[in-house]
Amino acid sequence: MTMQISRDHRAARNQASIDLADAGNGPSVIELYDAQGGNLLAVRTLDKPCGVINAEGRIVLQPSLANDMVQITGKPTFAVWRSGAGAAIALDAVTDQLGSGPFKLEGTSIGEDGLPTGMIYQGGVVALTSPMLVG
Questions:
Q1: Is residue 28 domain-resident?
Q2: What is the distance between the alpha carbons of residues 32 and 71, in angstroms, rounded to a whole number?
């Protein structure tokens, strides 16, 4: 059986995650890789605070107003969420907006089947789904 926590418990835990992510001189970022331990394709900078808590107690990440550009063409499948101090605070899968990963990208290319391919291209904008929910 999996432990279930209350909405208030989830909100408190997730607020602590936001506080940890905002610690440090720089902004919190999400790094997008083509595989765990693979090539860094893009970085998405988050605002300060990097997130807010919604009615369900989940984190809604807040991207910075400035757009970040894709550095290398590829298909991101793995993300590292880093604090403003540069420490890794969460690692998980990346999917397109239709996928089940916690880190979801918008605006990836569309394949011949009409579905998102998950590919991002050098010089393109890094766009996370809105709202970006974690926790």
A1: yes
A2: 10
